[in-house]
Amino acid sequence: MRRLTRRDSVVLGLMLGIPLLIDLAFIWGPAIASVFLSFTNAQGARAVAWIGGENYHFMATVDYEFWPAVRHNLLWLGVFIVIATPLGMLFAVLLNNNIKGTRIYQSIFFLPVMLSLALIGIIWQLMYSPDNGLINNIIGKTGQGNQIDWLGDPHINLWAVLVEATWRQAGYVMVLYLAGLKAVDPSLQEAASLDGANAWQMFWRVVFPTLRPINIVILVVTVIESLRAFDLVYITNGGTNGLELLSAIITQQILGAGNKIGYGSAIGVVLLVISLVPIVYFLTVQFRKEKQP
Known about the structure:
By secondary structure, this protein is mostly helical. It has a domain at 66-243: MetI-like (MetI-like fold, Orthogonal Bundle), CATH 1.10.3720.10. The protein is 73% helix and 0% strand. The chain has 13 helices and no strands. Helix 3 (66-96) packs parallel to helix 7, helix 10 (212-227) packs antiparallel against helix 13 and helix 12 (246-255) runs antiparallel to helix 13.
C-alpha cells in the first residue's frame, strides 16, 4: 500500500476539510445556535436573557396557531402518503411497461418537479382565481355571488394548496419508483409468469418486495417534504387564514414585526426533532442491512 505524500495529505485535508467547514458553518452551526436561542427571550436587538423552557410552554399551551399548524403538517403528510405516493407509483408502473410515448409522458409528469415551488404557486393562483380562473370557468362559478374563492376561503384553501403540492410530489415519486423498477431482475418476473401469476400478483408479491429500499427513501423524502412545506402557503397568503404550517409560523415569528427570534427558534427545534426521526430510522435500517452477512 502506497504511503501518502505530504502533497496527498494536503489535498485530502482540503477535500475533506472545506466541505466539513461549509457544513458546520451553514447547517450545524445555525442548528446549534437555534437550540440555544430557543431557551432565551431573543427579540430584535434587545439584550438576550435565559428563560429556560418558557418558549416551549407557551408554544404548547398558549399559542393558538401552533397546534393547528401541527395538524396541517400532519394532514400534508397524510395526503402525500395516501394520494401522492400511490399516484406516483401508478405512473411509474405504467411508464415502465414501455408504452408508446413513454419519454413524452415522463417529461410531462416530471415537469412540475423542475419548476420552483414559488412558480407553481403563481401558476395555480391563476388557475384558482375567483374571477378568471380556469377551474371556476370550467365549473361555471365565475358570476358575482357564485364564485368560489379557492385560496381565500379558510375551509377549503388548505385542500386547494394540497392539490398543488400533490401535482408536484407525484412526479417526484414517479421518478424514484421508475429508478427502482428498472433495477428489478427480469428473471423474477419471468419465473412468476411461468407459475401462472397475473399482473397484480406479480407486482405485489414479486416486484414490490424488491422495492423496499426505494420505499424507505420515498418515506423519508415524503416526511421531510411535508414538514418543510413552506413556499406554496407563503406565496398564497403568508401562511395564515387556514394555511398555518410550522415553517410559516417560524418565518412569521422571526421576521415579523416582533422579531421573536427565541420563540421562532423553539418552533424550529421542534420541527428539527420531528424531521430527524425518519432520518435516524432510515440510517438505522441501512446500517443493519450492511452488518448482515
